[in-house]
Write a structure and sequence with these properties.
alpha/beta, seven-stranded parallel β-sheet, six-stranded parallel β-sheet, 15% strand, globular
Length: 384
């Protein structure tokens, strides 16, 4: 079976790599199609091929023009042309074209129409609201694209129910639980670049976007600091929102020395180093279906504090401390015992590691995905 796995912008590169390698180990001929690799990518294909088919020109200019409006417009134009006129190549020749992310619905519709009938179409719906409230033009028309696929893969009941409420045919929805992931491990140099903690350390890591609630975390931390509690907060990742007012509010309140920032696209090894040196990992998301960041952190065995959005609501009580989504005072209350007690942190961390070990693996995920491929390809042959 030939499979074209497609994630044009590599939004979930670690997920793509893990799944493709596991399917290749089961004998599937897999090619992952994405953009040219960046220095921050850690994908080393094992048993599958990588094709940097998308965004070649814009990525070549990224270093010179930056990542501002001009770069985004160039990417959109290049992607639109690729979808409308580009050589479909392996996408069209494969038995299955599996879209992980659809980065620009207006252009994706054109590409899917070109592929329809040539190959079975599968899409992983990582979040029912694909790009959350800050999607803009990127997600406009996304819902209509779902009707073009032979099968939709989701990672839990939250997403399945959300799609059914949107009118998606339940018969096309397949639930395959998301296994834990491991980022590329930090080496000595990566660990040396992250300062050691002088106080209990909270970590928020990954892309910084409005729906992830970093503003709520800062507000919660300020309330705890003002009440006399001593701890550090680290923000590590690329901001896709203006966080300067948040940082200024911490400094203006006199707690600037307790805030550590490491902003930008960070390597997996650098993020792994941050997790290794943190005491508490915080996921204060306003809304989410499933969180790859959370699943990539479980093996570190660190205490977790989450909102009660999406997958977090179904976590066992001993795995993470939960706070009401969007509620900064509730988040502060959830953080307080962990800031104050190393014993509580250690107990929660041990439960998190055990929970991660029980969640299945990528071989299971690969076998479930291959079974979905077989069902849709068999159905297409039968209809003919």
């Amino acid at each position: 079976m030939k499979v074209a796995m497609c994630d044009p912008s590599l939004f979930t590169g670690r997920y793509d790599d893990s799944l493709c390698a596991a399917m290749a180990a089961e004998g599937v001929d897999v090619t992952l199609l994405g953009r040219p690799m960046r220095a921050t990518d850690a994908i080393v294909p094992q048993g599958y091929r990588y094709d940097a088919r998308f965004f070649r020109r814009s990525e070549a200019l990224r270093g010179r023009i930056g990542e501002g409006r001009a770069f985004r417009l160039l990417k959109a134009a290049e992607y639109g042309l690729s979808c409308a006129l580009g050589d479909l190549g392996f996408l069209g020749d494969a038995d299955v074209a599996h879209m992980q992310w659809l980065p620009l619905a207006l252009a994706d519709r054109i590409m899917l129409k070109r592929l329809k009938g040539r190959t079975a179409l599968v899409h992983t719906v990582h979040n029912a609201d694909a790009y959350h409230a800050d999607a803009g033009v990127q997600g406009r028309g996304y819902r209509d694209l779902l009707d073009m696929f032979d099968a939709l893969i989701v990672h839990g009941e939250t997403t399945r129910l959300a799609l059914e409420r949107q009118g998606v045919d339940p018969g096309r929805i397949h639930v395959t639980p998301h296994p834990p992931m491991r980022l590329a491990p930090a080496g000595p140099d990566d660990l040396a670049q992250v300062p050691d903690a002088s106080l209990p350390r909270l970590l928020f890591f990954g892309t910084i976007r409005p729906y992830k609630g970093v503003d709520l975390l800062v507000e919660a931390c300020l309330s705890l600091w003002r009440a006399g509690h001593r701890f550090e907060l680290v923000l590590a990742g690329k901001p896709f929102m203006d966080i300067a007012p948040l940082l200024d509010s911490v400094r203006a309140a006199g707690f600037g020395e307790r805030l550590i920032t490491d902003l930008g696209f960070l390597t997996e090894q650098r993020l792994d180093a941050h997790m290794a040196k943190a005491d508490v990992l915080v996921f204060p998301y306003r809304h989410i279906d499933s969180s790859g960041a959370f699943l990539s952190a479980l093996h570190h065995g660190k205490a977790m504090v989450t909102s009660d959005a999406g997958m977090f609501a179904s976590l066992p009580d001993e795995v993470a401390v939960r706070a009401s989504a969007g509620n900064a005072p509730a988040l502060a209350q959830a953080l307080l015992p962990l800031v104050e007690s190393a014993a509580i942190r250690q107990a929660l961390g041990a439960h998190a590691r055990t929970y991660g070990d029980s969640m299945g693996n990528w071989k299971d995920m690969a076998l479930a995905t291959i079974a979905i491929y077989r069902s849709v390809t068999h159905a297409k042959v039968t209809r003919r």
